[in-house]
Amino acid sequence: MRSMLFVPGDSPRKFEKASEGKADALIIDLEDSVVTDKKPEARTLTLAMLRSRPGPHQLYVRINALDTGMTLSDLAAIMPGKPDGIVLPKSQGGDDVRQVATWLEALEAASGITAGATRIVCVATETASSIFGLGSYRGCSPRLAGLMWGAEDLSASLGATEKASGGVFHSPYRLARDLCLMAAAAAEVAPIDTVYTDIDNLAGLEQETRAARRDGFSAKALIHPKHVDIVNAAFAPTDAERAWAEKVIAAFASHPNAGTLRLDGQMIDKPHLRAAKKILGQI
């Protein structure tokens, strides 16, 4: 999964348009894009969107945060639509995942969904306190599928006046990004890069996405349909990377008992083999 496109939960029109694109996943949003008095209506509309299944996209729902008191109502309303996953905003750590997982277990049973089928992606860096919980995701639940870092709400939590300049995040946000990446790697789940908000700066989007892939992120969250193709292309392996990966895999296949090998004058070992398999989508 490379691209996860947010769609307002109260806009079937935008959902239909997003469904025509090539995002790997659509995140139907019940949180920030829906004002409070429209949330009940948005739940009903979201359920209808889930049931429509207009394309091959995975369908996630971003519910409201646990501290709003709306989380369980969101889940009860949308789970009959059998979403592929839930996005939990403002997550503070593994305990939050366990709480949502407990509710999902009961709601899956009530809706005839296979136990454990609904995955959880956490937006894991939206408050200052959440940074200190990043190490608690490892092993918290088999449902956990990814950790996404976010800068918009973090800015408010920090009381910052500016997140970036010249297209480069300031140090607090780079710290949150890097720690989220490491937490996802430690938990063996997908690290997901934050949204790109300069909507018409497509060159900047490509540059940021390529940097994310370079550092180890495997997907990016998006807020506009025209970003999808650029992000998908940026996460695709280059011809040179694919060729290298195929050579590494072939070398180890020819020497299955070897721990290290010499390839094109360079020493390679099992971490190189894992990297090669990741490039080719084999893990």
Automatic annotation (TrEMBL):
UniProt entry keywords in alphabetical sequence: Lyase, Magnesium, Metal-binding
One GO MF term attached to the UniProt entry: lyase activity
Cited SUPFAM superfamilies: Phosphoenolpyruvate/pyruvate domain
Pfam families given in the database record: HpcH_HpaI (PF03328)
Residue positions binding Mg(2+): 126, 153
Highest taxon, organism lineage: Bacteria
Binding site for substrate: 62, 126
Cofactors demanded by this protein: Mg(2+)
One of the GO biological process terms: oxaloacetate metabolic process
Span of domain HpcH/HpaI aldolase/citrate lyase: 2-225
Gene3D superfamilies: Phosphoenolpyruvate-binding domains (3.20.20.60)
Family (UniProt): Belongs to the HpcH/HpaI aldolase family.
Annotated protein name in UniProt: Citrate lyase
